[in-house]
Write a structure and sequence with these properties.
By secondary structure, this protein is an alpha+beta fold. It has helices spanning about 1-20, 40-50, 60-150, 155-265, 270-275, 285-310, 335-350, 365-370, 385-395, and strands at about 20, 30, 355-365, 405-410, 420-435, 445-450, 450-455, 460-465, 470-475, 475-480, 500-510, 525-535. It has 9 helices and 12 strands. The strands form 3 sheets. Strands 4, 6, 7, 8, 9 and 11 form a 6-stranded antiparallel sheet that branches. α1 (about 1-20) packs antiparallel against α4 and α3 packs antiparallel against α4 (about 155-265).
Length: about 550
Amino acid sequence: NELNSIRINYENQLASICGTFAGDDGVIYPAIPLYADMSEPTRVLSEVYGSPCGLVKNGEIFEALNQVSTVKLDYQSLVVAQQTILDEVQIENDRVQAYCGVIVDLKNYKIQGMKDIESAEDVIRGLQYGIDHTRRLVDIASQALIITGSDILTMAAKSVAAGVWAGVAVVAECGVAVMEDQIERQLDDINDYQQAIVEHDMLAECDLAKIDSLAVIKEKLLGLKKLEVEALKIQQRIGLAFSKVQELRNKAKRVSDEMTVAEQQVIDVAAAQNDPNVRIYKNDSIITADRTFESALESAYQATKVFEYYTSQSYAHLGDLFLVRTVAFGDYNLEAYLAGLEDAYYGFEEKYGNPDLRVAIVSLRDDVLKIPYLDEKGQALSRDERIALFRERLADPSFIDENGYWAYPFATSLEQLSPLTRNHKIDHLEAELQGSATGDEVARVYFRQKGTGVVYGVEGDKIYFSFPEFTAVVNPFLNGEKPFEETVYESRRFKDRPFANTRWELVFNQRDEQVNMDVDLNSLSDIRLYAYYTDFTGL
């Protein structure tokens, strides 16, 4: 009977860790090698892997393995996001190269056209020069004929006059030639200037395109850097998940070994009696007492960590917990440890009092999308102009996430809070939609917290925390109106998490959240997060 009680005790522990399965006889067995032959699937698993433990789709090990798979899927999503950014960078580079190629072709076409025009103008100028030159010769000849044909002058005078006019004509002709040559050079210079201006204007457009493209590429690469940080976090999560699986497998092996030892000690009572180094066998009550005492120590450790988190300070006597061997007796016992922890809690309350409830407002328009208050000329933008810019930015397709939701990332920091307060923890969240076409009284907004949290400790030091990613679904009130009970609008999903966090996301789902289908995004003037948090006055 004692042997059977011991076996049941240990097998119940192993069933919780390794999982259970239904045998061919309809009996539920723990997934351990001892019972692997009781069903065909576990028999195959035992032959392939040596044990069905953790492979029967239930139990703590199976859940831990699922967590590993989930993290791996997150990593695959991250890889896809990284490749998407690289593809976008390449597309942007290709676009600019193609754009600059068109500009260069257009530049060459315009310059060639100007050269053709210049050639035509050269011909025209040559013809005009010939015409002008002929006209001048005709004028000189006419003047000479007039002079030589005059009846007033004598033959000698006519001869002298004709010579004088001939000289004047030669001098005039030389002056005209010089001036025309200078005009030709000026026209050539003008053409050169026009060509240089065209080339400069066209290539300047290419340079501007490259500048704009470089800014886009830098923004994309900045996103890539953020993804690298997320990749490191995922690597850490994968390591922790694998560690959890290994821990559970080790625990299963340890429990299995303890069962073997306990059974052997029950069977071999004589060995236990004759060998002082062998402890008297454990009966079922002792085994249960050991397990519950270990669970009590774990709970005391958790209580200590909760105290440290709540007070944002370390507990000096945490090390004593590892020396506790009894509940109520000895220098280090569990009751004395918990009494000391309770005294430390009351001492903290005496010094700092109860936490105060405060609120911080995060505006999607002003704080997240950072719609400016001034235009490029430094003139103040009106409210309507800022709302128009907000709606344009709100509909930017770059904010659509992998689920097809509108996701707007932002961060909260300690600088938003009073420097005289400490230990800022979220109590609950509320949200508000502001706009003219928000539909009926019901809508939903999601908030995700996936970054690193930070709090000011009561002693002024910064303490950092990394928690699993959480998503809160919040029913926002519309334009300040709350037609339902207050609690409908409150979400306590993030209760006691740090207010300051490096990565939040405000998510609006119009893809498959039916209550949001009647909300017109183009009518919204703002979405606001009201973060109610608690803190202690540190000074």
